[in-house]
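[Q] Does anyone have a clean structure-token version of this?
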Amino acid sequence: MKIIKKIHFSLPEILISLALVSILLSSLSYFFYQISILNIASEKIEKQAFLLRNIEYRLMKILPKTISVNDAHNDFVFFTGKSGFSGFKPGNSYLLFTFDNKINLVDPQYSNHVIGRIFLDPENNLSLAITPSLKRWEEPDKIPTTREVLMEGVDSLDFSFFTGPHPDTPENNNEQPIPHNTWVSEWRREYKSLPVMVKIEISFKESEKKDKRTMIFPLPNATQKITYGM
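[A] Here you go.
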């Protein structure tokens, strides 16, 4: 026959036990809360890194195909402007350029030479707009345009261009001289040439600080080339 032995606790002991349990539960709740915060931050960083790689991959398929100033079809366009009109976020630059889009089987009108524009819209979307070469259309106001949103939540967009060494021959009788072997923050229409490299910087506004990312793309069809001495 089992003898049931009763254990009696005093009121102070019960209160102390409840306090200890409460502290333990609070500590565990805070621990799991911190883990949740870290997971959310990690997922955000991973998502942003994935999107940045996707942007870089997309632009690497386009910018290096920018056509030469000596293009036989005379389709060359390459310059920056300030987005001070509808559809563009004020205070940010855009880049307008012609590139060879090769064969587009989905929509043939976007094959061969097309005009690309990289810009930031008022909703902070980093965007790429593509228009067929203007020479193909008799009615410029009805030219079709596609737009891709490359990334959302971009606070600012900046371009820089590396100009390369000084040429041995005159640069198409440019009215505006081009600085050489340096980075410049704008590329004027009057330059009528390609830089050696394009740098794109995008910033994300988080709290009181800005997180900036930089991508650099070579332009193989530039007249000037970077040479390395031994």
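[Q] Thanks! Anything notable?
[A] The mean pLDDT is 81.
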